[in-house]
Task: structure prediction
Amino acid sequence: MNPPWYGSAGSGRATSATSGFRPLGVALTLAVLLTGCAGVAAEPAPGATSPTPTPTAACPKVEGHELPPECAPYDPDHAMAQNDRHRERMELSTESRAAAEEVVGPLRIALEEVRASGTVSADGVQKAIEGAGLSDIQMLDDYGTVLFGAGAPKGGCIFGAVSADAVVIEAGGYIMDGGCLPAQ
Result:
């Protein structure tokens, strides 16, 4: 003999004494479970502040305009100045500067000879720099002006430019992103 919830033999469907209450029982069970998931909104404590929106975008500060709460303000002029910081030169010690300055005079004479030859070329400038005993040479031939930078004897750089019109040469520290000649 089958249990009462199994149904009667040959009926083809399940029957029981509680079969009419089954949908109601499922609904009540769901209601109890879902009620446990929903919380009652709590009142903020006295003196507590409400949460502020988290910035999701960077917005330039503009004088006289208030930014929306989703903006993180920034100063565009300061950002541009920081963007060029890689071109600034590091400070040289007194000893390094003195050693570099000793090379500047003889190198200026050699570079003036290249300029006076009437043909300013990267090869001519490089030979003059090598002749002064410098290494780590960086050069950029920029339409008739040869920009150069080379490692100084005790650190730092000797850098400048040679064109048909002039020779410019200086001693100073490495640029912030390394090397003696900044990218153009």
User: Anything to note?
Assistant: The longest helix spans residues 94-116. Residues 53-83 form one domain.
